Amino acid sequence: GLLDLGYIAFYAVGAYTWALLASPQFGLHLPFWLILPIGAAVAALFGVLLGTPTLRLRGDYLAIVTLGFGEIIRIFLNNLDHPINITNGPVGINRIDPISIAGVELTRTHEVLGLEFAGTHLYYYVLLGLVMLSIFICIRLEDSRVGRAWIAIREDEVAAQSMGINTRNVKLLAFAMGASFGGVAGGLFASFQGFVSPESFILLESIMVLCMVVLGGLGHVAGVVVGALLLAVLPEVLRSTASPIQQQLFGKVLVDPESLRMLLFGLALILVMLIRPTGLWPSPIRKREFASEEA
Fold it and tell me: Vertex 189, ends 205 and 265: CA angle to 5°?
C-alpha cells in the first residue's frame, strides 16, 4: 500500500554497484554471483535509509518524497566525478563486465550440442530464470506471515498495530525487500548493456514501473506480470506498425511513432482507470474490496 515513485533510484544503485565492481573504473572484476548479493544489499540499505524518515507518510506525501529521492540519487550520480571521480559523472561507466558462468561470457555466441546460441539468447534464458525465481519469491512472501502483515498494514495500520504487528519494522522490511529486487534488476541491466549513465535512470522509468502495477492489477503478482508484458510489447508493435498504417491511410506520417506511442499509452491508462479501476487482473481480495466500496 506504499506509493513509491523513487523505485528507479534502487535500480540505479544496483546498476552502479555492478559497474564499479566489474569494470576498469576501479580495476575490479568480481564474479557476478558475488556482485548481485552486494548490489541487493546496498539497494536494501538505501531502501531502509529512505523508509526510516518516511514511515508516517502515506499516499501523495510519500509519493512526493520518494520522487524527490529518485531525483536526488540521479543528480548525485551525475555529479560524483569530482573532487574524486567515482561515477564518471554524466559520461557514465563503460566496458562493464558481462555475466560469466564457469568462464563462459554470455555476450558471445556459443555452440551447445551442435546448436548455436547468440549472446542475447543466452542472456534471455538467464534473465527469464531469474524472473521466475523472483515471481516464486513474491508468491511465497505473499502467503507468508510477513506478507499477511503487509496486507494487514495496508488495510488498517492502527488495527494491525493493536494486534501486535510491529508496523515500523514490517514497513522498513517492505522498503528493503522492494529495493533489493530493484538493485538486482539494475545490476543485470548494467551487465547486459555494458554501459551505465545517470540518464538511464530518469523519473519516467519509475512511472513506467508504477503503470505496470496499476495496469496489470493491484496486489496480484500475475496481474503485474501481464501489465509488464503489455507495456513492453505494445510499444514495440506500435513502433513497427504506426508509420506504415499512417502511410496507407493518409499517404504520409502525420504523428511521429514515439509521440503516438505516448498518446495511446496515456489513453489506455485512462480507459483502464474508468472501466477497470483495479487493473486488468487484480487480486481477489482487492476485487472484493472494490466491489464492497461501490455497493
Answer: 30
Upper half-sphere CA count for residue 60 (Cβ side, 13 Å):
0
Residue 252 to residue 241: CA distance in whole angstroms: 13
Collapsed DSSP state (helix, strand, coil) of residue 22 = strand
- 134-166 CB burial, b ≥16 within 10 A, e <16: eeeeeeebbeeeeeebbebbbeebeebeeeebe
Q: Please compute, for residue 275, the number of CA atoms within 13 A of its CA located in the half-sphere on the CB side.
A: 9
Contact 221, 138 (CB under 8 A): yes
- pLDDT value for 1: 61
Q: Is the peptide bond before 83 cis (omega within 30 degrees of 0)?
A: yes
pLDDT of residue 109: 78
Cβ atoms of residues 37 and 188 within 8 Å: no
Paired residues of 115 in beta bridges: 112
User: Strand pairing of 93-94 and 100-101?
Assistant: unpaired
Residue ranges for the chain with pLDDT beneath 70: 1, 289-295
Q: Please tell me the predicted confidence (pLDDT) of residue 293.
A: 61
Strands 110-112 and 22-23, bridge-based pairing: unpaired
Q: How far is CA 279 from the centre of its chain?
A: 18
What is the length of the chain?
A: 295
